[in-house]
Design goal:
single chain, 0% strand, Rna Polymerase Sigma Factor, Chain: A
């Protein structure tokens, strides 16, 4: 499966200039600012809500909140990190209001001292690329990801789908970099355990693929 081409992301200097221009009155430039991150916000919302209509609503609400609160944006952070943090909060609020998912405590970080054996983890992306052309495999992967507990689903989407750095992911989630690493490790192990038996039945061969 070929990787979907993303809109070019401006560097921090260009981004700061666009934001300054918007705050000075050129509000039409806001769409230029968010365009590179529209897909990321939608994917994050969809991974949390498991519903396309809800994901679209949450992404749109996140964009509106970002626009209304643009003056509070701290330039030392990436705009994308700030925007995805808003999207996460909106998705969490939607879940709480719908009472469809029991959220795990986000105030209780995982123990960084708990032993996790690296030997248990092989790269979860070692799935034959040709297999992803098959709809049932794509659906299998989506179900496995959306089936992760929220705190692990969030970090998996940020790190392995959106390819954000450890620092950016920690900033977006408001957790430590150590917690980012632990949660991602656990998320990958969970996915491996869920997917390995099913994928092994389909094909014993291995290869690399790019997600989405």
């Amino acid at each position: 499966m070929s990787k979907e081409k993303k809109t070019a992301v401006p560097d921090k200097r260009d981004e700061a200039q666009i934001i300054a221009s918007i705050l000075a009155g050129s509000t039409h430039q806001f769409h230029d600012l968010i365009r590179p991150y529209e897909r990321s916000a939608y994917v994050m919302a969809l991974s949390m809500l498991k519903n396309e209509a809800d994901a679209e609503d949450v992404a749109q609400e996140a964009f509106l909140k970002a626009f209304r609160n643009l003056r509070s944006f701290r330039a030392e952070s990436r705009f994308s990190t700030w925007l995805l943090s808003i999207t996460l909060n909106e998705a969490r609020n939607r879940l709480r209001h719908k009472n469809t998912v029991k959220m795990e405590s986000l105030d209780e970080p995982p123990s960084e001292q708990q032993h996790i054996s690296p030997a248990l983890l092989r790269d979860w992306r070692e799935i034959p690329s040709q297999m992803l052309q098959r709809m049932e495999v794509r659906e299998m992967l989506l179900q496995a990801i959306t089936g992760l507990p929220p705190i692990y689903r969030e970090i998996f989407v940020l790190r392995d789908i959106e390819e954000m750095s450890v620092f950016e992911s920690a900033e977006a989630l408001g957790i430590s970099e150590a917690s980012v690493k632990v949660r991602l490790h656990r998320a990958r192990i969970m996915l491996q355990k869920r997917l390995a038996p099913q994928l092994k039945q389909i094909s014993p061969k291995r290869g690399w693929f790019s997600w989405l």
